[in-house]
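Lecture notes, part 5. Sequence design as translation. It can be helpful to think of inverse folding as translation between two languages: the language of shapes and the language of residues. The source text, in structure tokens, appears below.
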């Protein structure tokens, strides 16, 4: 693969995995990840959504690290661009401007009501998000803490729980549950996840 550029799409969960894989290329900020100015032709410092090319010496020295970082990203938001955008392709893909059409009054009213419905859905009622982590070395625990922090941005109240000692029967009363669980060794589950898994997979387990 010959890399031309790399950028960060929406949805970064600031887990630091890319910075660990390629610290000269990625810098994780409070709420996203930036491509460093020293590796970019345009010298910018942002997510590089304009897909500025990487410097030739960076491409030859760090392509493997960049691909490793993209592979390590748990939410697949590191976008590796292999070819520079050609002007012809851009012209071909450029959308044809549409003539704005008058929106019938009834449809406009309906849109407002739908918008209000979505806002209500996102802001009212039970806003809890229970995040259970199964972690052997601490990475899943750290990721869970970051997810709980990020949840605030979506109007949710995240609570992090160790899977060890978590009351399995309480799951049926939870509104939203997110399980973050790693594997280690040859695919074994973390020690702290084992008891909950045994309870969940037992024949006598309640149907949730
Ligand atoms: S690995 Fe992905 S999610 Fe994690 S900080 Fe980097 S871009 Fe964000």
């Amino acid at each position: 693969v010959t890399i031309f550029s790399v950028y960060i799409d929406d949805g970064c969960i600031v887990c630091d995995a890319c910075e660990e894989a390629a610290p000269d290329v990625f810098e994780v900020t409070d709420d996203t990840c930036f491509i460093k100015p020293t590796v970019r032709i345009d010298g910018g410092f942002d997510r590089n959504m304009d897909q500025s090319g990487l410097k030739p010496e960076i491409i030859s020295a760090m392509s493997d690290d960049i691909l490793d970082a993209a592979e390590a990203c748990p939410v697949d938001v590191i976008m590796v661009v292999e070819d520079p955008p050609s002007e012809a392709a851009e012209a071909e893909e450029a959308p044809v401007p549409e003539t704005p059409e008058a929106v019938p009054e009834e449809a406009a009213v309906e849109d407002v009501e739908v918008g209000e419905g979505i806002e209500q859905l996102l802001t009212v009622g039970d806003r809890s998000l229970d995040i259970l982590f199964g972690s052997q070395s601490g990475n899943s625990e750290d990721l869970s803490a970051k997810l709980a922090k990020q949840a605030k941005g979506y109007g949710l109240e995240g609570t992090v729980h160790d899977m060890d000692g978590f009351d399995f029967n309480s799951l049926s009363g939870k509104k939203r549950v997110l399980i973050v669980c790693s594997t280690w060794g040859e695919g074994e589950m973390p020690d702290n996840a084992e008891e909950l898994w045994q309870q969940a997979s037992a024949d006598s387990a309640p149907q949730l």
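The translated text above is only one of many valid answers, since several sequences can fold into similar shapes. The mean pLDDT is 84.
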